[in-house]
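so im writing up the methods section and need the 1-deoxy-D-xylulose 5-phosphate reductoisomerase record in one place, dumping it here so i stop losing it
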Amino acid sequence: MKEIAILGSTGSIGTQALEVIRLHPDLFHAQVLAAHGNVELLLKQAHEFNPSAIVITDKDAGEKFKSSYNGSAEVYIGDGTLEKAAVRDDVDIVLVSVVGINGLLPTLEAIRAGKEIALANKETLVAGGALVIEEAKKHHTLIRPVDSEHSAIFQCLLGQDIKKIHKLILTSSGGPFLGKTREDLENVSLSDALKHPTWHMGQKVTLDSATMFNKGLEVIEAHWLFGVDYDDIDVVIQPQSIIHSMVEYIDGSIIAQMGNPDMRLPIQFAFTYPKRMETPSHEFMDWKKLSAIKILQPDYKVFRSLKLAYQAGKAGGDMTTVFNAANEEAIKAFIRSEIKFLSIFDVVEEVLDNWDVHDIHSIEDVISADKNARIASASAIQRFKC
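--- predicted struct ---
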C-alpha cells in the first residue's frame, strides 16, 4: 500500500489522481488531501477517501471547512501547510499538482524528507529548476513527471543511455487556435481560449495551451528533468494528441510514446513506476479509426511564447523564474479582462527584455526574483490595458 499526499486534490490532476486511487484501493490510499479553497469538493473527497490530514491554504476557506467537517483527519490551514503535509511520516508519494510557483517549496521539502515525487507542476522546475535538481541528486530522488509530454519522454528513455540522445521532441496539440493568424486572435475571448480540442484541464493550463506558453514551460522543464541543452529540444504540433512526445537518438532511431489523451495514464504510471497496471481509460487506441497522424510546425511569429521560453532558458539565472511569473500575471490580467489575448505575449516580452539576469543560489533568490517580476509585470499590464 502506497500512502499518497495529493497537493491540489480539487484541481484537474488531483481529481483524476483520485480516480486512479479509486480504481486501486488495495494499492493506494489518499493519506493527505490539499486544496486552496474549494470547500464543497474537499468535503466530499474527505468523506470518501478518509485521509489522515487535510490542507486548506486559504484561511477563510479553511475556517469554513472546519465548521462543516466532522471527520478525524488533522486539518492544516494557511501558509506553509503544503510543506508541512508533504513531509509527514505517513506519506510515501507526494503528488505536486498545485498551480504556479506554490509547488516549489513543498517539492523541495518532500525531496529532503526522502519522499517519492510525482511532479505535475511545471512551474516548480521553471522557477527553481537548479535548486530542485540539486536536491534530487543529493537525496537520490527520481522525479517522476506527470505532464503527459515529460512522462512520455521519461518512458522513451527507460533502458536507454541518456548520453546517446540527439533530440527531445515535445509534441503539442496546438490548442484551440492552431493555424490562426495574429489578426484572427485580436479579439479572442476567455471562453474562446478555454475551448481545448483534446484535453480536459484546469483553467490556467488550458489558457497556457491556448497561448502555447505551456509548451515554453515544458521546454524549460524538459531541460531540467533530463539534462538536455535547449538547442537539443524541439517542439512539433501533433493535433490529435496521440504522440505525447519522442526521443531521437544519435543513430537516427526515434522512440515515441503514444496513447489516448487521458491524464490518468501518466498519473497512474507515476504512482506504479516501474510497474504497469491495466489502463485507467478502460479502452485502448482504436487504430482502425486512425487514417493518419499529422505532424506540423509551430508558428513562432504568432505564438511568441516559444521564442521567449528559449530566450529565458538560454539566458539562465533567474530568467526562467521571471518568465513564469510574468506569464502568470499576464494570464490573470486576461482573465480579469484587463488586457487582450495577444497582450499576454507583449507583457512577458517586455518584462524579459528589461530584466537584469541574476544567478540563483537559494530559495530566497527565487522568491525575490518572482516577487520583483510580478511587480514589473503589473507595470507592463498597465501599459497594455484594453
